[in-house]
C-alpha cells in the first residue's frame, strides 16, 4: 500500500501526498475503524523494512515511524533549522479533531495530553474556526495604544464568571498577555509594586515560591521555579526569591515575613508531579500573607479553567483563603496564545500607567477567541462531566494499581489533572501507549500525567485506559519489547 506523507505547501499549509479520508468522515467512523485504519496505512512496503522493523510494525497499531519513513525524512530536513529545546518522539502531527490527533502517515492517537492541558475543548472546533476567520477578516491587532472592544469584553467576562462561580471574590481587573509565563511575570511585578507602595524603602521585595513548582521559563518566573534543571544553565537568578516546601505549614511563619511582597503557589502542581495543596496549607499561607501585608498569588495556569471540575481550582477554599492575584493561560486560548493576570482592587490601585505593558497581549483576535472559550469552560454542565470522568479514571487506576502494586505507588490529582506515581521510569509506558494509539506525558519524578481534553467522553476514557493497561503489561512484564525513543520528562533532573 502507498504511504500517506505530509508535505508543506509554499502557503505554509500541510498537504497529504494522497487523499486522506480523515477529513471527509465523521469522528464516529474512526471510532469503529480504529485498528483497521491504523493498520491499513503502513509507512513503507515490507521490502523497505528490515525484518525487525517489519515485525514491529505488523504487531502494533501505531508503531513509531521508522528511520527510513517519509516522516523521518521530513524531520531530518527540518532539524538543522530548529533550536533543540525539546526531545520529541518520531510522529509528525498534522490533524486534530475532538480528542484525537493524526500524524503525517495517517495514524490516529487518542490524546490524553491536550497539548499540555491547553486543548480543553479538544482539537478543532467549528465555532472557534468561524470566529477566528471572521475576526481575522475584521481586525487582528491594533496594539494597546488604542481601544478595541474584545479586550474589555473578555476582562469583564473573566471577572463576572469568576464571581459567579465562587472563585476569587476580590477579582476586580484583568491584565491580558500572551502566555502563562507572561501572566506570572506580571503577577511578580505587581507584587513587587505593591511591596514598594506599602514599604517605600524597598525592604519589602522578596518573593516566596515552593519546591517542585513550575511558573515559567522567563527570568522572573524561572527565578520562582526552584528546579536546578531549569535554573542552573541561566544562573544567577534574579535576587529576592526564597523557596519553601509545599504543604509544610510549620515553615510558613519563617518563610513569609515583613520582607515578603508576594507568595506564588499552584493549588495543584502540574509539572512538579500533580501534587495537590492541602486546604489547611493554603489557608495558612493566606493568613500569614494578610498578617505581614504580602500579596498571595495563585498560579492556576494548568489547574484552572474547569480542569478540576470547577472553574477555578481554589474554589473549594473559604473566601478567607482566596488570592489577591490569580494567573491563567493554557486553556484560555485552547491553543491560541493568550494569558491573563486577574487582580484585586487593592493590587490594581498600585499599578499605574507605564508600570507594565505588552505589544501583542489583548489583541482582538486572541480576546474574541478567549471570550468564546471562557463561555464554554465556565459551563457547570462541563464541570459535572469532568467530575464524572475523573471517577472513571480513578476506578481504572485503582485496578491497575491492584495489578501492579510494586510499580504504581500512588494516585493523585483532582478532576482531569491526574497523576500515577510509578516506582520505575515511566518512559517505556509512554512509548508503549503511543505505539498503541494513546498519548500520555510525564511530570515530576516518574509520574504519568493525565490531562485530556475536558470534553472527553466515557467511551474515550475507557478506550484509552484499556490501551494503557496493554501498554503497562508490556512495559512492566516485557520491557525488552519496547524499542521506542525516549520522551521528555519535564521536571526530571538534567541528564536523566
Describe this structure in words.
There is one protein chain. The chain is an alpha/beta fold and 496 residues long. Helix content is 36%, strand content 17%. The chain contains 17 helices and 19 strands. The strands form five sheets. A seven-stranded mixed β-sheet has the order 6-14-13-12-9-7-8, sandwiched between helices. Helix 15 (380-403) runs parallel beside helix 17 and helix 16 packs across helix 17. The longest helix is centred in the C-terminal third of the chain and has 24 residues, at 380-403. It is globular and about 65 Å long.
SSE topology:
Layout: E1 6-8, E2 14-16, H1 27-32, H2 34-39, H3 51-59, H4 70-78, E3 93-97, E4 100-103, E5 108-111, H5 114-117, H6 126-136, H7 149-165, E6 171-177, H8 180-198, E7 206-210, H9 219-223, H10 228-231, E8 241-244, H11 252-255, E9 260-265, E10 268-269, E11 275-276, H12 279-292, E12 295-299, E13 325-328, E14 339-344, H13 345-348, H14 364-377, H15 380-403, E15 408-414, E16 417-422, H16 427-434, E17 438-439, E18 441-443, E19 447-450, H17 458-477
Parallel strand pairs: 5-17, 7-8, 7-9, 9-12, 12-13
Antiparallel strand pairs: 1-2, 3-4, 4-5, 6-14, 10-11, 13-14, 15-16, 16-19, 18-19
Helix pairs in contact: 6-14, 7-14, 15-17, 16-17
Give the strand content.
Answer: 15-25%
Largest sheet: 7 strands, mixed
In angstroms, what separates the terminal alpha carbons?
A: 40 Å
Shape: globular
